[in-house]
Each structure stands twice: as structure tokens, then as C-alpha cells.
Amino acid sequence: MKIHTVDKDIYDVFVGQILLPSPKFHHRQQTEMKLAMNTSNTDLSDRLLTERQAVEIFYRAFTDKNADLVDRVLAPDWDDVPLAPGQSPGPDGIKPIIRIVLQAFPDVRITIHDMVQEPGRIGVRAEISGTHQGELFGIAPTGKKVSFRLHEFHTLAGDRIAKTWHMEDWFGLFLQLGQFPPQA
Fold this sequence. Notes:
This protein has about 180 residues and is of the alpha+beta class. It has five helices and eight strands, in the order βββαααβαββββα. Helices cover about 35% and strands about 35% of the residues.
């Protein structure tokens, strides 16, 4: 059976059967564990708390209707993967997105359901809810209350988010709105 390495050496794949962590992944985990063991429990707890607060402040930028909050928690070269159509890179690129969401859903709320964390990395399962009261992607306001899922994985450097991989359930949102954005 042929073995393929995928996802930047995190997994070795037995084609059609199972995923097994690659030796490189094990080495990275062992290195991180040694680092954690050399750090006092208080230092580690402080680090985890600081990182968690950075991620929570990022989501508060939406709920608190304050796009500038991201300046406190995003690294100047923050990498948002994937960028939205027309989105600029870095913290300044997310601010117009936040404003578009706030215009379309003035009562927007992001509820964090789960956070999974290890030093320097946080995974989030959340839900965005609100009432569609403004245009969104060419869809006129419907007045419908909606809720859709959000999954994000953040990499942190100190007290700043350095990279975010995200996936929103736009399909579920458009189904709730009863229409899809017009196609060009």
C-alpha cells in the first residue's frame, strides 16, 4: 500500500483507509511538550489566558460594534485565510467586513460554543446570529432572524492573533434568507 504525505506533513495517509499522524507531527508535539514542561504552570496559565482573551476580543469587535478593537489583538501582518473578495490583507482588511456585517445585521451577536486551545493555537466553534436589516451581498433586507455556524483556527504570537483560518456556513445563511446573492 502506498503512503502519501498531506497537509504539510501532519498526516500520513493510507489511501482510502485511515489517517495516522506523521513522524514530523509527533516531533513537533514532543518539542511543544518539552517547552511547556520547562514553563511554570503560572506562566503557562497566563499565556493561555492572554491568548484566549485576544480571541474573545476579536469576536467582540462584531458584537460590540467596534471594528477598531481588532487593532488590540491582530498582528500587523495578520493573515486571514481565505480573504473575502476584495478584502485587503492585515487588520485594516477585516474592518470593512465587520462594518458590512454590522450594516446588514445591526443586532449581530457571535456566541462562542467551544474553544479548544494549546499554547499558540485556538480552535473556535461559534454561531453568528442577528436580524437581516440591511443589504448583504446584493440581497435586500428580509427582516428575518438568522443564525449560522462559524469555525475558525487561530495561531497566536504572544498576545496577538497572527493567522486565522475560517469557514462560515454562508450556504445555510442564504437558505435562511430564502435567496442567494445575484451572480455576475
